[in-house]
């Protein structure tokens, strides 16, 4: 089926759902509460779905069960302290959360980290992307009922987490990025271990491409389910793999000016024209493999030199405003930092990817069946901390 | 560069005379384009830090979105608010302590006690005079709504700002142009108390329904800080190995990294 | 011959006790070998390999103890009597299945003339228990799950029956013991010492039977009634402790029974070529049957651990548009060959 057909069908389905909502004579509808405690929401997201049979007539998303008020909390912290805090936004790829914030602060301070630090930053950025997305690749299986892939995912993600722990001391929350550089250099023997782990991750990707994505049932469950047309997705603020799966060739690593080392690597932005759940899964799988290749290149080309620029002992950021964004595993993550010259920021707006990725869900769920709710939620891939901040 | 641009502070790294503004032709061209399209609705602007800020009149807020959509800004990045009132945190008790630590002489002050460092944190706050200091592209009121759009074709972004009334902050909704603004406006509404005219469903997003107050306003107390005072800059201490050269203290790994 | 002169009531008690002990035994064996060991190996899971030292032998016992210790929770809104009764109804269906499965020339509780017909009939009784559980739980997930189970049963009982018809035509009998003998007496191109297992002629029927049995057992890829990521645990959502254990035992007990029936229908059941009758046949029978059961159960569980789950409409389409036509064709082909040969 062509893309246009799929998109038209999903429109028709949503319109049919609208009509059903408005007719006066209707069968009795049932309201189904998915969450806040539900295995499919891997966190505390709540979806209130009005069902006609097993078809969704209207779906509302309720979030905020885990809202931690980071935008308020960062106003009473210094820049190095905030680093610890924002680690917990997208907790599966913590290091990737730190980078855009540090970049924003560096922009305001007019400090630039030395090349080696930038390369190591890029290295950990990609490692945390792998740690995050490998889990998604397996998790998608468990949401569709195949339990085995998720255990493979946990097994192989462990290699990456071990690497991160070895170098930073923190398995989940490295808190490794510093204004003007990074905390430490790489430990001895780490590079060969990393290459080994990357080989394993590539093997894992091949395995899942075969085991899960090659399964006819998987295709039947995901093809044509939850089709997002590119323009709709963009106007909802979808980013990252979700929008690349709708055929938008846009990756901030390539398209935004950044001091990190992506520009110096040879890699490819993967897109898929279909915009359905299968496309989203496919794009993420390819990106994971691409990330392992990028890590290999980063390890080979790691420049020597210092890892920390000269910064004052007490970090004080001059007044100004800065917007820094990066292509995080879940999509565009950005920090809008307003400084008034203190030790801490005046206001920080955290633009997290999942928040916007999930905001399309009410539109997307109209007219789908209950099992497709799960497919769509899983394929959009959100982290609760990234929605609720 | 619009005349209404107000550099927020003297040491601003990217004021009108900053080097970064000169080279940023793309953003400058975009600003000119926007100015011709929106006319006198543009009341302030700033080009710098590799980005563009445009402040529009509140009544032209929706028109800005429409024009941008027509110009190919297909991607809605975020919408939020800001309260420019100086804040009263974190811990009023330490404000009395004397001493100033500046960026420039931080190295010389390396032997300063943590208490003095703490005090430096406070004394630099603009809270002292209580005046509102607004940021890039200026501002006349306490509240501003800000939103960012991006073009995935031209790979350029713009941040819009609009001043809101102090007493009854309200503005038109963007949901007609960018449906993604729905949740953002709900969040901004509950956090800042802004009203978005024409929003289909302006209920609370994160907070429980009975919640009172607007947490991200600066006068909303952060209870954790009220109850327990700020511990101070406890994490800024000398590294034991480098007492002789305090300037290098913050970069102990620089030598190893070579 | 020995000890067959017992009064009827004594025989009945002995048979009941044996079947009652086979259900947990079968469930425990399958649970241990496949759920804990095979799955742990397939999925690189460390947990089930640890408890008790050698190969995690204690895991299942620990699980059992855990279930029994758990508080027996009945939701306030639940229909208490129906809620309590439902696991038993499901278990009774499993119990009744074992009545006709022969494990040796004389090792059968009751060799009915309509044995296979009876087995397929009682195997669908369990869904009444599932519906009771779903309704009595006063939980939307449970209700959705039990309704899915009912829909699934209607769709898959048909291919199950149609798949068996091929065997019945070939064997000329519906008695399971008769089907075993028919396979034992058959010959493949004149070679008669291993008989003629119907798997050779009814391989299509076996495939359909396996798929339908998988659906009957609500195992992946047909596990929508309990679909964990969608319906939490389907009709079992509100059950805990030993009531949950009943469901668990019924599921694995039924898996064991259906594997035994499949082994009987397609692999010659208890038959081995060395002893047709006599005490040795009765001793070797259960062993032979057990090996065949494990092989078929291995297939069932292998599929369970590998595939994702169908969607409800895809499941129905699979049953009505694929399995039923193919089994009808199979019946026709079998009938034609029966007449011609």
Protein topology:
The complex is a heterotrimer of chains A (389), B (258) and C (341).
Chain A: H1 3-22, E1 30-34, E2 46-52, E3 55-62, H2 70-73, H3 79-86, H4 94-109, H5 115-143, H6 148-168, E4 177-178, E5 181-182, H7 190-211, H8 216-222, H9 230-235, H10 241-244, H11 252-255, H12 277-301, E6 320-328, E7 331-339, E8 347-351, H13 353-358, H14 361-364, H15 370-380, H16 384-388
Antiparallel strand pairs in A: 1-2, 2-3, 4-5, 6-7, 7-8
Helix pairs in contact in A: 3-4, 4-5, 5-6, 5-12, 5-15, 6-7, 7-12, 12-15
Chain B: H1 19-23, H2 25-38, E1 42-48, E2 51-56, H3 61-70, E3 75-83, H4 114-123, E4 143-151, E5 156-164, E6 170-172, H5 181-192, E7 195-197, H6 223-227, H7 254-257
Parallel strand pairs in B: 2-5, 6-7
Antiparallel strand pairs in B: 1-2, 3-4, 4-5
Chain C: H1 8-42, H2 59-69, H3 80-97, H4 115-123, H5 126-136, H6 140-171, H7 176-185, H8 203-216, H9 228-231, H10 241-266, H11 279-306, H12 312-340
Describe the protein.
- The complex is a heterotrimer of chains A (389), B (258) and C (341).
- Chain A is built from 16 helices and 8 strands.
- The relative contact order of chain A is 0.19.
- In chain A, the strands form 3 sheets. Chain A has a 3-stranded antiparallel sheet with strand order 1-2-3.
- Chain A has helices spanning 3-22, 70-73, 79-86, 94-109, 115-143, 148-168, 190-211, 216-222, 230-235, 241-244, 252-255, 277-301, 353-358, 361-364, 370-380, 384-388, and strands at 30-34, 46-52, 55-62, 177-178, 181-182, 320-328, 331-339, 347-351.
- Chain A starts with a helix and ends with a helix.
- In chain A, a hairpin with a 7-residue loop joins strand 7 and strand 8.
- With 258 residues, chain B is an alpha/beta fold.
- Helices cover 23% and strands 18% of the residues of chain B.
- Chain B contains 7 helices and 7 strands, in the order ααββαβαβββαβαα.
- Chain B has helices spanning 19-23, 25-38, 61-70, 114-123, 181-192, 223-227, 254-257, and strands spanning 42-48, 51-56, 75-83, 143-151, 156-164, 170-172, 195-197.
- Chain C has one domain.
- Chain C is 67% helix and 0% strand.
- In chain C, helix 1 packs across helix 10.
- Chain C is globular.
- The model of chain C has no long low-confidence stretch (mean pLDDT 81).
- The chains are: A alpha+beta (389), B alpha/beta (258), C mainly alpha (341).
- At the A-B interface, helix 2, helix 4, strand 5, helix 9 and strand 6 of A face strand 3, helix 4, helix 5 and helix 7 of B.
